[in-house]
Write a structure and sequence with these properties.
The complex is a heterodimer of chains A (367) and B (243). Chain A has ten helices and 20 strands. Chain A is an alpha+beta fold and 367 residues long. Chain B has eleven helices and no strands. The N and C termini of chain B lie far apart (66 Å). Classes of the chains: A alpha+beta (367), B mainly alpha (243). The interface between A and B is medium-sized, with 40 and 26 residues.
Chain lengths: 367, 243
């Protein structure tokens, strides 16, 4: 649907996007995730042809978008965009939704029907005559969504659509996005800095870091096999650095970190320096005196608890094993295990739960 | 103090009795200043939009020049225009000197800078997100500009009202270009100047009050027009929901 080739956008000396190559498939939900200021908005604006790249090309349905403004307008009119901050004009909800139709010269009668349909879609039909500036943030964003959908776009672009909304409104918007995709087959490109939101909605995820498209893949690939320490950190993994592969027998490696040895599955040969990515929810804790307890875990390390931080129904327990290892366990098991800062525990992690990254400068080579 | 109270009494008297000379002066004032305001607005709104929506080198300099011209004394505009349209001037052949049309021209020139400047400020006040939204919804450059101008309508109204205020209140152009000719180019401000010089303070105050009443009426009407523009827009959107 949209093919992006070697796209770069510089503002003065600063490159907001660098050499991005990406293909968005027809009918998919594609989310762009990355920290604030990583270039997500710049990329979405470029796709909507609101901005022009410094170099590189964007093809929309096979057609080069770098043509004259007349052609760009025709392509832009096959897309719609919802912005992070919903901008409504100082008039009624209905007229706000009708703008796209007005610009395309749709007759009033037909426009009215479409506006009604679109407001029904987002569940705001009863606000038809309201002044749009009197709406709440969540309602405004739903109006913005209705306004974007009223022209029946082939591609819907959403730039952090829920970043300024409360959780209930966010969920409503997420629901609508999925429903629109299913019902109309609209191709959706959405940016978010919320990794979990990206995962909930997306068929595929692209991770943008510092203007570079660092990784594209399914949500489980990004969550469990990040292609670098930066991505690992962004998806909730504190990678352990400074490990070295001691030996590797057929993909089964022994990795030494400080005075501890980990078993992990990787093809990286012996002698190489690596980082270990371990998701905190994959780390289990057992009391240090329960040596007899049998588990399937080979990697067991005794450590002292440094701190315990509550996180909703969970707690994050930082264990000092010579290096910090973080475990995410339920509050209940924390109480049952009688964990407290300073006490000794045994941390365990399965070999299959360790994702190994090679540390030789070329961080994209591993994984 | 008695002059002021006398003036108020006399003003009411002149208004109630529809004194023909005063009415003629008031109507001429309104005609000249309103014409100048309309012509200036028709030039200043597109010009302001043109400057705001285009990036060109020297844009800042142009805006600074416009803002400087806010302060141009009315007598300087009168003087320059006098030199241009007097019999021996380059535009003397048109015969605008000492005519109401000449005064309209003078007041138009006088208030255009302030109107353009304030129109630019009004358009600047519209959030960048609005223009992005309009473009993303498929607006052409022209459609986008029309909607932004419409969105800024209340601030643009202020620009127009201020222009009208400066036009109807000024003396310099009216005196130098109009010449304060009785029954021909005498307007409220020049009449006030004349009557005050002659010691008719009460009449001067009465004329001042009439000027303010005219201003009040014009401002109310302009506000009504702007509000009507808003409700017109609602009708454009369609009649309402079915059921």
């Amino acid at each position: 649907m949209i093919r992006i080739e070697k796209l770069t956008r510089a503002f003065g000396a600063k490159e907001a996007l660098r050499d991005v190559t990406l293909e968005i498939r027809r009918g998919e939900i594609f989310t762009l995730i990355g920290p604030s200021g990583s270039g997500k908005s710049t990329l979405i604006r470029l796709i909507d042809l609101l901005d022009s790249p410094s170099s590189g090309k964007i093809f929309f349905d096979g057609a080069d978008t770098a043509g004259p403004e007349k052609d760009r307008l025709a392509i832009r009119r096959r897309m719609s965009m919802v912005f992070q901050k919903p901008a409504v004009l100082n008039t009624t909800v209905a007229e706000n939704v009708a703008f796209g139709l007005k610009f395309r010269g749709v007759p009033a009668k037909e426009a009215e029907e479409k506006v009604n349909f679109s407001l029904n879609l987002v569940g705001l039909a009863d606000l038809y005559r309201r002044k749009a500036v009197t709406l709440s943030g969540g309602e405004m964003q739903r109006v913005a969504l209705a306004r974007a959908m009223v022209t029946e776009p082939e591609v819907l672009l959403l730039d952090e659509p829920t970043a300024n909304l409360d959780p209930v409104s966010s969920e409503m918007i997420e629901d609508l996005i999925v429903r629109i995709n299913k019902r109309f087959g609209t191709t959706i490109v959405m940016s978010t800095h919320d990794m979990l939101q990206g995962q909930r909605l997306a068929d595929r995820i692209g991770v943008i870091m510092d203007g570079l498209l660092a990784q594209v893949g399914s949500s489980s690939e990004i969550l469990y096999q990040p292609k670098g320490r930066q991505i690992a950190r962004f998806v909730g993994i504190d990678a352990i650095t400074g490990g070295q592969v001691i030996e590797n027998t057929g993909g089964h490696a022994l990795i030494r970190v400080g005075e501890t040895c980990f078993e992990a599955l990787t093809d990286i040969p012996g002698g190489k320096w690596v980082s270990l990515c371990i998701r905190p929810e994959d780390v289990t804790l057992i009391p240090s005196d329960s040596v007899s307890e049998k588990t399937s875990m080979r990697n067991r390390i005794v450590g002292r608890i440094k701190k315990i931080v509550p996180s909703g129904p969970f707690v994050r327990v930082t264990v000092d094993c010579g290096f910090p290892l973080i475990a995410l366990i339920t509050r209940r098991s924390c109480t049952d295990l009688g964990l407290s800062p300073g006490s000794l525990v045994i941390a365990g992690v399965k070999a299959t739960a360790i994702h190994v990254l090679q540390e030789d400068g070329d961080r994209n080579a591993a994984g | 103090m008695s002059d002021i109270t006398n003036g108020i009494v006399q003003a009411i008297d002149l208004i109630i009795t529809l004194d023909p000379e005063v009415m003629q002066i008031a109507v001429l004032s309104l005609y000249i200043s309103l014409s100048a305001t309309i012509i200036a607005a028709l030039i200043a709104i597109p010009a302001g939009a043109l400057i705001h929506f285009n990036d060109f080198s020297g844009k800042r300099a142009v805006i600074i020049l416009i803002q400087t011209l806010y302060s141009v004394p009315t007598v300087v505009v009168g003087l320059v225009l006098y030199l241009l349209i007097s019999k021996s001037g380059p535009l003397g052949f048109i015969g605008l000197l000492f005519t109401p049309q000449g005064m309209i021209l003078g007041q138009t020139v006088l208030i255009i800078p302030i109107m353009i400047g304030l129109v630019i400020s009004a358009l600047r006040g519209i959030d960048r997100g609005i223009s992005d939204t309009l473009v993303s919804l498929g607006a052409t450059q022209f459609q986008m500009i029309i909607e932004i101008v419409r969105e800024a309508r209340f601030a643009i109204l202020s620009a127009v009202v201020l222009g009208f205020g400066r036009a109807i209140a000024e003396v310099g152009v009216a005196m130098m270009i109009g010449g304060n000719i009785r029954d021909h180019t005498r307007v409220l401000t020049t009449a006030i100047t004349l009557e005050t010089g002659m010691g008719n303070f009460a009449l001067s105050i009465a004329l001042g009050i009439i000027l303010l009443v005219i201003a009040l009426i014009v401002v109310v009407i302009l506000n009504l027009i702007t509000s009507a523009l808003s409700s017109d827009m609602q009708q454009i959107a369609g009649g309402g929901p079915h059921g």
